[in-house]
Each structure stands twice: as structure tokens, then as C-alpha cells.
Amino acid sequence: MAQTRNLSASLAHDLRTPLARLRSRLEMLPDGKEREDALEEAQRLSEIFDAIMRVARIEAAQGQDGFETVQLGELVAELEEISGPVVEDEGKELMVAASDPGRVQADKQMLVQALANLIQNALVHGGNEITLIANGEAVGVAADGAGVDPEYYDEIIKPMVRLDQLRGNEGIGLGRTCCWGHKMRVTIALT
Predict the structure, then answer these.
(1) Domain finish residue from 41, 66, 91
(2) Are 98 and 17 in a shared domain?
(3) What are the distances in angstroms from CA 63 to CA 59, 163, 167?
(4) Full residue range of the structural domain in which residue 26 is found
(5) What's the pLDDT at 180?
(6) pLDDT value at 48 more than 70
(7) Within this chain, do residues 32 and 121 fall inside the same structural domain, yes or no?
(8) For residues 79 and 86, what is the distance between their CA atoms, to the nearest angstrom?
(9) pLDDT reading at 105 higher than 60
(10) How far apart are CA 21 and CA 152, in angstroms?
């Protein structure tokens, strides 16, 4: 695992400069849809590299300098406000279940990204009800969708793992998912 983390971080770091050069060249192209699409893709790649590097630093206990106190109740309320309209546009409902939400020291940007990814997964693969959960020092997302086949439970919680049938979709497998029965439930426990 340590070698994999180091390799991922090294690759992400080494590819940042060529990606920055590519982005610079793309910005010199004439305005148009293809230019904008290419710039969006370059931005997405930069964000993926940044996420990989942040995860590697956090897992190596070297990246806590960006940590801050995060009030989990406030966090899920913010996410509800931001994501609620998107969920409603899809004809689904976003709810919040907060039970004595605590506060944690965390990289808030990574936490927001993880929860946003989980909400997006619930929109695509879940049913009509999506719930943001804040309970003590844990936050998560639950959806009333079909869930994941139990044979994949051990694999889907690993970082950088995506199920084969989902490989055509965006994402890099940084979400950590646990599914029980026919309900999809994801919880990120923080300590």
C-alpha cells in the first residue's frame, strides 16, 4: 500500500508540469467549444492529480497542515444547499439526517469532494431519495437505490478501485463505499 501511495503521488507530481504546459498551449487556441472542452478536461486532470497528492500526504500523515476544524452539521447543511437544486432537477429528493453532529480536524476540501462524489454516485446509481448523514464524528450519504452486488463489497472500499461496468463514467475511484442489502449507504468515519 505504501509503495502504491508513493507511486501515485510521484506520478501525479511528475505529470503536473507537462499538464500545465498543455493547458498553457490550449489557452492560446482560438475561442470555441473544442478549446473550452479541452480546457475543462485539462482542469479535471489537474484536480485529479491534486486529489491524489492530497490523499497520499494525508495517508502518510504529512498533509495535516491543511486541516481545520470542520463542524459536520454545518458541512452537511452547506452541501444540502449547494446540491439540493441539482438533485431536485433530477427529480429526486435530498434530505439531511443529523444526529448530534460533531466536529473534526479534516481537510475540508477533500471532505466536500468526497461527499459531492457520493451524492453524484447516488444520483446516477441510487433511487429517488438521497440522505446526507452527520452522526457524531461520521458523515455520509445514503440512497435508496439497488446498491452494489455483495461480491464487490471488499473491492469497492479500496482507493482507486472502480467496478468494471462503471469505468466509462467519470471518476477515479477515490470514494470509499460500503453497501448493505438493497440500500446504498456510504459513511466516512473521522477521528
Answers:
(1) 66
(2) no
(3) 8, 29, 29
(4) 2-66
(5) 30
(6) yes
(7) no
(8) 11
(9) yes
(10) 39
